[in-house]
Description:
Distance between the termini: 47 Å
Shape: globular
Number of helices: 17
Radius of gyration: 23 Å
Structural class: alpha/beta
Helix content: 25-40%
Largest sheet: 9 strands, mixed
Amino acid sequence: MLHHAIDRIAGTDPDRPAVIHDGRTFTFGELSARVRAAAAGVAARTAPGARVAMVGENNPAWVEAYYGVPRAGRVLVFLNHRLAPAELASVLRRSGASLLVGTPEELDRLAPAVAEIDGLDTLDLAGWEDLVGAAGPGAPEGSAAEPDGAGAGAAGDGAAGDGAVGNRAPAWIIYTSGTTGSPKGATLSHDNFAASIEASAVGRPVLPDDVYLYPFPLCHVSGYNVLRVLAAGRPVVLADRFTPEVFVDLVDRHGVTTTSVAATMLSSLLDHLADHPEDRARLGSLRSVAYGAAPMPPALLRRAHDALGVAFTGGYGMTELAGNAVFLGPDEHRRGLAGEDRLLATAGRAAPNVEIRVVDDDARTLPAGQPGEIVARGRQVMLGYWDDEATTGRSFTGDWFHTGDIGVFDNEGVLAIVDRKKDVIVTGAENVSSLEVEEEILRSCPEVREVAVVGVPDPHWGENVCAVVVYRPGSALAAADLIGRVRRSLAGYKAPRHVVATDELPKNGTGKVVKDDLRRWLADRPDLLGARR
């Protein structure tokens, strides 16, 4: 069970720092007691197997819910506060959540969109604090504490985890955008995370004196880093949100030794240090930086190495794998920075407890040097997609999960990611489904006859969303107006940054848009993109 790790440390060293946020430090003893109380409080308000959703920027309540909701035999549903109210209401309906916990600001923002969801109770953070306090830290071990039995059938609304108990019980549901357009609820069990933590202990070990800074939103699967660091008995420093100034201040104030970043974060930090070189001395305790979410450009790695002088580790994984399953370690980075350039463009080696293959369209294993789809098998592979047997079935061949990413092994067993799901755009470490944006443009812009949405390179965000549109005869629409209509229904980061008009879209013999041709056309005509909007 997720909570066993913090209970174990609380039992032997209760005064050890666990979570540090906004000037307050929670010890392992305090965290364990609050998780136990949260589990009892959630159990008192919800039925066994209920889904409990949380929304809002980073705060310690997220960490308490990480452990407390599954401890109660309920399932925590992650809501990304950057999504539009209609999107979040859809996730709440699809997950069947009966309790929504959030900041007052988020609950106010969502109130009109969720008012008609039957059976949905809400609780703000003050209420969460009252719930934890009312339950009391002395709640007896085992009361509302273990999902065995209480969690049976927790995924009874769908295929994922149906009837699972104990370590195979669903713990978290994280909705992730994919090529189908609508978000899919990756259902992750206690055992999925136990395996993920084991994998990271090899590929990205936590050292005995580490202090870890977590700068990502806690509503992402990257939150598994909080689990792995706390399981090793080391403190986690939470940032409300990432800015270079906040990053430097937290590293300096708490003696942070290690952190995880996306490429956009690292780029912003290096730009800040270039403008404020005096802040470099404030990062003296930092000795390692991990990255994931999207590929790290080798040029950015070299720049970071020159500016920071720290060790780097890379990771390849996804929500459906409960975190990273493939790692590129510090030694490979040192070799890459010393001249073996190819290593900097690889994902690394699979962790010992996960199997990774590269296969053809018939699921046959391909030899080294030949690219194909990456498939994975192991305990950290998700239970399935919540209440979506069809999509779950299409995503597996036997017990092999199809990632949709294209990769290739070299003769030494090092995996490189050749490409990823073409229809998913990664902008600032956020996944955007191109189909979802296309459907919204066609819905809200009757002037548009056809549209194809693709990612175009951006030096800071990694990719920008670009809409290539064919207008109806006699119609026209200013780019700003099109973008504005999309923003009214979807999160801002999903709205196109570029709008390009064309007479026709490239298509194959079956009438399907060939996005590879579209990307090449845009790459050859950068003038079409103009200034980023």
